[in-house]
Task: inverse folding
């Protein structure tokens, strides 16, 4: 990647690299702060972020909103250099599928997050929730169609455009904007053309609003060569997530990180989330049980809007918490398609240098 500072409006990071948000509890203050300290954009996932708060089981929303402010401040403390300045930026990934999505976005902006990135749905009304703040916002899009819908809506209803864009391809982890059939036949997707079409589309809005809209490509970003390729297509940088799990600074348990190191290509499974969206995960005892028979949900944490505990095959909150704390046989371990290429635990500074050489 040709290293040049990233500028999003009046926000500047030393490196054009975003660390993708990963929940539950995989990317919190420790990882996001380390990334920002190294000059990138550190992203905290708000997905059940308050799972360690004492009142989480009784009132998960209150616990989550409180934890957001705490984690943001802790990340900023980690990121500050000896002069008290932060070489990078710190923000949040907030899924549109989150119940009470508006409250999470408003809390992030009120807390002073540098950026908010939203996917797992179309964040068509996000501009209203950050109005009057200095927080920069970006949708995650996987197609030109999705980008067109969002940018047109923001233009017509809010008279503004995106501050930056994240284009997420089919190699990404977590909830994905592709059908299961597409994910099982990725080579058939002409994704370079899709990226170029989205970049061409955003240029229309750059001209209208006399601004720049940096574009970051996510999904399968594993090497500096991958970054160089998408930048040749017109992107300004990359968003990487899976590789940041295998770092000393990642907030997940050592057992979770080791699952990434041990995983092979053949261990990857395309699963269906309780909200009906496909996702990519490491096959384990939990997935095998869920494929055989659904798990009875004894407590609902009210995490995702579209989840019905009466019909959901398992509780995704509990499955993700189990995984991140190290109870892997009872947990869901989301991952990107290239997790099998990870062979060791590294550090955030070393990884970022490797990705931006």
Result:
């Amino acid at each position: 990647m040709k290293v040049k500072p990233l500028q999003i409006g009046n926000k500047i990071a030393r490196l054009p690299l975003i660390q993708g948000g990963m929940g539950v509890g995989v990317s919190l203050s420790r990882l996001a702060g380390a990334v920002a300290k190294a000059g990138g954009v550190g992203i905290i996932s708000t997905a059940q972020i308050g799972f360690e708060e004492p009142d989480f089981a009784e009132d998960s929303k209150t616990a989550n909103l409180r934890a957001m402010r705490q984690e943001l401040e802790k990340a900023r403390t980690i990121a500050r250099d000896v002069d008290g300045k932060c070489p990078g930026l710190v923000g949040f990934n907030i899924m549109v599928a989150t119940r009470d999505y508006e409250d999470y976005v408003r809390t992030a902006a009120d807390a002073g997050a540098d950026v908010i990135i939203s996917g797992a749905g179309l964040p068509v009304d996000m501009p209203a929730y950050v109005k009057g703040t200095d927080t920069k916002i970006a949708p995650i899009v996987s197609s030109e169609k999705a980008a067109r819908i969002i940018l047109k809506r923001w233009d017509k209803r809010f008279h503004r455009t995106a501050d930056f864009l994240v284009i997420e391809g089919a190699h990404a982890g977590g909830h994905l904007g592709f059908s299961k059939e597409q994910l099982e036949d990725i080579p058939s997707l002409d994704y370079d053309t899709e990226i170029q079409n989205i970049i061409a589309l955003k240029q229309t809005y750059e001209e209208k609003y006399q601004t720049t809209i940096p574009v970051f490509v996510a999904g399968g970003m594993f090497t500096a060569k991958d970054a160089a390729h998408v930048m040749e297509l017109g992107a300004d940088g990359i968003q990487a997530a899976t590789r940041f799990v295998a770092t000393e600074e990642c907030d997940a348990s050592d057992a979770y990180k080791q699952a990434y190191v041990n995983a092979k290509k053949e261990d990857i499974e395309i699963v269906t989330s309780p909200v009906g969206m496909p996702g990519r995960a490491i096959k384990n005892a939990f997935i095998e049980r869920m494929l055989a028979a659904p798990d009875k949900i004894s407590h609902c944490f009210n995490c995702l809007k579209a989840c019905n505990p009466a019909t959901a095959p398992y509780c995704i909150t509990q499955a993700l918490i189990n995984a991140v704390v190290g109870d892997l046989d009872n947990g869901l371990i989301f991952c990107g398609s290239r997790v099998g290429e990870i062979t060791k635990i590294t550090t955030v500074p070393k990884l970022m240098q490797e990705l931006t050489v």
In short: The chain has a mean pLDDT of 92. The longest strand covers residues 136-141. Residues 281 and 333 are 5 Å apart (CA to CA).
